[in-house]
Amino acid sequence: MNARVEEAPAPLDVARLRADFPLLARRVHDKPLIYFDNANTSQKPLAVIQAVDRFYRETNANVSRAVHTLGEEATSAYEATRDKLARFINAPSREEIVFTSGTTQAINLVAYSYLLPRLQPGDEILVTTMEHHANIVPWQLLGDRAGAKIKVAPITESGELMVDRFIDLLTPSVKLAAVVHVSNVLGTINPVAELARAARKRGIPLLVDGSQALPHMPVDVRAIGCDFYTLTGHKMFGPTGTGALWARKEILRDMPPFFGGGEMIREVRFDGTTYADPPHRFEAGTPNIAGFVGLGAAIDYIEGIGRERIVAWERELLAYATAALESVPGLRIFGTAKNKAAVISFLIEGVHAHDLATLLDHEGIAVRSGHHCAHPLMQFFGVPATVRASLAFYNTRDEVDRFVAAIGKVRKLLA
Ligand SMILES: Cc1ncc(COP(=O)(O)O)c(C=O)c1O
């Protein structure tokens, strides 16, 4: 009998891929740049930069309005990204992809269009301790308006969601649960399919914030089984000001518009306006057309590499960087989940996060220091800030070595 052999993906040629990113060749403070701030925003490959440039040079026109050649070309280039994104996350239909400026706008759209009309005083919205402010504050604003409350599912000291507690908290008063797929601070990958199954069983819609998942791993919204999935283009090698909400067609059909204006209507009359079908119903005004064309190029680029290969390389790089950092005396890592993406938050005893990040910058190393838009998580760990090194597939072992050597140097100065 033939045993089926799982083939390991071919390794990435990182040196060759780095050549696709012009910015990675920069020097900062006369040192070669080491860019470890990818969770904040990722760098852009030439294919994305050229797609945006080419759009403005050759195609620029508004979408869905003009019948002239440029207008039709611009519309089809913009709409092609909707098809690509639908395929990229395995959405059942392109009509389920609503373009937004990013995850923040996508979550606010769900908050005001889907949830607000359904909220009653006393209702609850379930989130977790590890959420980004974008997945907390919109729900708090709704709660203030509707007399609803936020309920918080706890995490462990190692930064893992307490799944049983999350499920216990899915009570009948919860009208929506919202959870991050990959934590931007801890790197924790949450078991979103399991959470979606539990939520569905209880008839509670689940929103998954996928901002940090798309750059690191394959995402399949059908396999997850959630109701809403949000993403941000600039973290997945696309332009800023691009992103999307995915939601099931039946849900979108029932949602009223959130922004009003051009593009989102069927007919405007002073005695009553009718609205376009989703997704255009939620896309009022002129969008970031060139940006979405660039996002399409980013998707092509990632698919050209292969997400399984990205996962394999980043897993190796994360293990290498974690081991190297653990050897630094006095260094504490926040977030040691078994299943995590290549994001490492840490502090060094006696060293302020901002001082460390500033001195690392003098070594040409870009990391983020601060609360990472996750105040409640900082409160949980009892620290005001951490330093975060967030890696992408174009980072190398050599960069990790230079990073750890620079930390050693800075530590001697500050600790
Ligand atoms: C987990 C997470 N959610 C939401 C956001 C917000 O994304 P954007 O600012 O692109 O809307 C971020 C950005 O850092 C994030 O990391």
Structure characterization notes:
It is built from 14 helices and 17 strands. The protein has 415 residues and is α/β, with parallel strands linked by helices. A 7-stranded mixed β-sheet has the order 4-10-9-8-7-5-6, with helices on both faces. A hairpin with a 6-residue loop joins strand 11 and strand 12. The N and C termini lie far apart (62 Å). Bound molecules: pyridoxal-5'-phosphate.
Topology (SSEs and partners):
Elements: H1 14-18, E1 27-28, E2 31-32, E3 34-35, H2 46-59, H3 69-88, E4 97-100, H4 103-115, E5 124-128, H5 137-146, E6 149-153, H6 163-168, E7 174-180, H7 192-201, E8 206-209, H8 221-224, E9 228-232, E10 243-247, H9 249-253, E11 265-267, E12 274-275, H10 289-305, H11 307-326, E13 331-334, E14 343-348, H12 353-362, E15 365-366, E16 368-370, H13 375-381, E17 386-390, H14 397-414
Parallel strand pairs: 3-15, 5-6, 5-7, 7-8, 8-9
Antiparallel strand pairs: 1-2, 4-10, 9-10, 11-12, 13-14, 14-17, 16-17
Helix pairs in contact: 2-10, 3-10, 11-14, 12-14
The structure holds pyridoxal-5'-phosphate (PLP).
Pyridoxal-5'-phosphate (PLP) is lined by residues 39, 102-104, 132, 134-135, 180, 184, 209, 211-212, 232, 373.
